[in-house]
Amino acid sequence: MPNFKIFQDQPDQARVTIYSPSGVAMSIDAAGEVAITSTGLAVTGALSVAGATTDTAEIIANNSSTAGGGATAHNVLNLTTFTLSVENNSTATNAQAYVKLQVSPDAVTWTDDTAYTTLNTGSLVGLVSSIFMKYARVYYAAVSSASAITLSIYFQGHS
What we know:
This protein has a domain at about 55-159: Jelly Rolls (Sandwich), CATH 2.60.120. Helix content is about 0%, strand content about 35%. It contains no helices and 10 strands. Strands 2, 3, 5, 6, 7 and 9 form a 6-stranded antiparallel β-sheet that branches.
């Protein structure tokens, strides 16, 4: 019978070992990847991991457009929760950026999910959707064309 209780006061220190039906623990290499060492092992079908996470980053460098532009669209349909975070890494102290979250049913037609947020140099903002649609992206613009912005956009989701 499985035991689903974990006694750990520090959640980030909780560890799990997975055992095969024969009682042998799975082998994990130094990078945290499953080590498959058996010769003649054939993997057929897809590996599905419940509770999987996704984490990507995109850099928008030296953009001075005040008209704005959309960052990479992310398919969020199979995620239970996600966040798009934007960090203003501009080198000029007055290089402010406008950022907002947009969602779309088809990655062609976009609607604003949040209002513009003014992001100062060195600041970070997390954008969370309140509207459920298949795609999400960050829309960004420079406050002034005289000050180019450099943004790091992070997409993190959990299924």
